[in-house]
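Continuing the batch. This is chain 6 of the set; chains 1 through 5 are on the previous pages. Same settings as before, nothing changed between runs. Recording input and output for traceability.
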Amino acid sequence: MASKRTLRSAVRSKRIPIPDLAPKSLRPSSSRTPKGPNPSRGSSAAYASNDDQAEDTLTTPPRKKVKVGSQASILRDQASSPVSLERPAGPHSTNAPLKTPRGSRIITYTQDVVDSSPSKTGIPRPTTSTSQLLDQACAHLIQVDPRLEPLIAKHHCQLFSVEGLAEVIDPFQSLCSSIMAQQVSGAAASSIKNKFIGLFRDDAEGTIATDNPPFPSPAKVALCEVPFLRQAGLSGRKAEYIKGLAEKFDNGELTATMLINGSDEEIIEKLTAVRGLGLWSVQMFACFALKRTDIFSTGDLGVQRGMAAFMGKNVQKLKANKGGKWKYMSESDMLQHSAKFAPYRSLFMWYMWRVEDVNVAAIAGS
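Output for chain 6:
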């Protein structure tokens, strides 16, 4: 975390230098095709998703025409290889590396994208790098409202740090975990997830059981019947939701490529159309998993309460008034006040949680 002096200096200069973008190490290399699903689970099905089928070229389609099978910028490597800490980044882009069902990784800004115009790729040019994004965002927040400086100095936002941005995200696993965590405690959600993975233990690495089996692929889950999935402790409705989500990833309706190429609005619209994924869940996924920096949830009570306290309101008195969904702050006031913090409203939201000591880790897990 940058010191106060560094942040003030960044604010006064109104810019933070951006280092050289997209090193050669980001260029793609070959990867092998894994084995298909265990036939004992049901009839055979194509294991490779549209993400993986698209990895033979580096042609990135216009963002406004996101579609099944469209090609993202691709970084292929071994699953155990570390992700480069220094990569181009941008406020309206997916800044997390995403994992495809076959184990390869895709990122937004490869050399080809950086060298191409946004009119060709449909992706905005990077404005910063992963090592500079957090400092740049914090400088912007402080410039808009200097009262945030003590809060920023006290709480380091690991989520958007260079280390946080290096975390490789499996979109299917992350969205499944969100469904599992709905309306249950964190401990219960963790138990369900472990049991769910255990259902596919014999499928890990062929037929060899492992101590730490990976999360099952969409193809494997899609082959399963709802009663089988319920053995993990899922309700019938949640099991249906997860099977439906798996089918959408398996048939290419949802892809990691779409999550790379899509705008904030396109991704939210696409995912909220999926049964079992509400607006809040999708917004949290976009913020915590995809690492998109301009997500803001007005429906989160923790954010409402934090904003009210930050603006000097007596939240205890407001809580006692039982004013309904917007008892701490109206939606219009939240939107109006947060707008000036764009394009870093995800970080503003994170700091509003910290105002009221909300358990951010629990939110990330859900």
